[in-house]
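User: I've been trying to design a sequence by hand for this structure and keep getting stuck. Would you show me what you'd pick, starting by listing the structure so we're on the same page?

Assistant: Good idea, let's start from the same input. This is the structure you sent:
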């Protein structure tokens, strides 16, 4: 008996010592990589504009926005004469970066001899960077010339379905908006759903030249049949009906401007709403778009110029007017399927059958509304509680 108690007496101190050691180890502050003394980012011009004016390629006077991909925290900075911004004490994370340098008419006159407006330098290639406190080396961001922006943008995507209606999902739509100050004709503009198959491991996000699609439609018309005035919206509905009949919490789309009618399937056709033209969609009874994640692009390209890759249509980046991606978790940008040069981020985070929609942010200037378009849906879009077909939720009067 004494031997047993002696063993117990010797054993417990050992447990206590090991436990305390583990506890001390657990409570010790780890070597943290969450904060950094200084991060340095340098903006470099690929166009030669800065060299023509200042004798070097550093982009001075650029407005830089950093947004934490995990927390949404934003930091605004301005680059110095070396094209550099410095920032201290921020959390290590992946950051969405937007850098813009507006070229003045006077600067453009020095470069080209003409007082040109609407030119700017933008980070078109790198839109997501990782800042780590264990790597404080200089980060270089290339910038390229962008002239204006697309006169037409995707303004809203409603895809998740209405609440309280079972599995009803026929009320989906996408909406476009005329950003310009003149009439735009929608005739012939392509609407394509970006293709990626996780099941087959096919993801073409890194294709340097093409968007891949198996769902391609086109606005009808011969060139001047379907005008869209400045500041006007146009909804393209899966089914242009009053969906409140089938789903009381849904929306009335019976008077929208366009609908996707699949004439090779038992689809609904509203005779009072012009039909989009189906170029290619080999499956489904309706226009197909993901409820929780997906991507859509607009393009202006002749149909006979479209190329094929197996059973997919290829759309060259140079013809794309706008593109928007949405994800189940918009912070998981490693899951993107749309190239960063078209959309540097993603909106979304919406669950099925919640009735929520994704809408581009409105900017009001001199009494006129335009929509935010920095080619980054993480920054350009917000989630709204219900769809707003052919009007913006910030408007007090429904159009």
């Amino acid at each position: 008996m004494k031997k047993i108690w002696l063993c117990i007496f010797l054993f417990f101190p050992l447990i206590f010592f090991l436990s305390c050691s583990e506890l001390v180890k657990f409570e010790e502050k780890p070597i943290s990589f969450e904060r950094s003394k200084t991060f340095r980012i340098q903006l470099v011009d690929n166009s030669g504009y800065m060299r023509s004016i200042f004798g070097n390629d550093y982009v001075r006077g650029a407005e830089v926005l950093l947004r934490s991909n995990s927390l949404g925290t934003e930091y605004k900075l301005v680059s110095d004469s070396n094209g550099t911004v410095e920032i201290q004490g921020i959390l290590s994370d992946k950051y969405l970066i937007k850098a813009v340098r507006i070229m003045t008419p006077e600067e453009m006159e020095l470069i080209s001899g003409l007082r040109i407006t609407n030119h700017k330098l933008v980070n078109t290639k790198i839109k997501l960077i990782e800042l780590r406190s264990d790597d404080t080396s200089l980060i270089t961001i290339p910038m390229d010339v962008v002239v204006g922006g697309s006169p037409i943008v995707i303004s809203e995507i409603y895809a998740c379905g209405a609440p309280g209606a079972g599995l009803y999902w026929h009320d989906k739509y996408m909406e476009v908006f005329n950003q310009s100050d003149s009439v735009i004709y929608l005739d012939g503009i392509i609407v394509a759903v970006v293709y990626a198959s996780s099941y087959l491991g096919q993801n073409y996000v890194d294709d340097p030249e093409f968007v891949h699609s198996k769902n391609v439609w086109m606005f009808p018309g011969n060139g001047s049949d379907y005008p869209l005035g400045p500041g006007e919206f146009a909804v393209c509905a899966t089914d242009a009906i009053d969906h409140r009949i089938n789903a009381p919490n849904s929306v009335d789309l019976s008077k929208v401007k366009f609908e996707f009618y699949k004439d090779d399937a038992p689809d609904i056709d509203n005779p009072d709403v012009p039909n989009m033209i189906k170029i290619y969609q080999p499956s489904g009874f309706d226009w197909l778009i993901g409820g929780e994640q997906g991507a859509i692009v607009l393009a202006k390209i002749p149909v006979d110029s479209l190329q094929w890759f197996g059973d997919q249509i290829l759309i060259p980046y140079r013809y794309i007017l706008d593109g928007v991606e949405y994800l189940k978790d918009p912070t998981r940008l490693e899951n993107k399927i749309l190239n960063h040069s078209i959309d540097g981020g993603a909106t979304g985070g919406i669950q099925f059958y919640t009735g929520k929609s994704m809408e581009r942010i409105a900017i009001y200037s001199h009494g006129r509304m335009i929509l935010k378009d920095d080619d980054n849906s993480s920054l350009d879009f917000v989630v709204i509680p219900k769809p707003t077909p052919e009007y913006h939720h910030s408007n007090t009067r429904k159009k």
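That's my pick for every position. To get oriented when you compare it with your attempt: The chain has two domains: 39-147, 152-384. DSSP finds four helices and 28 strands in the chain.
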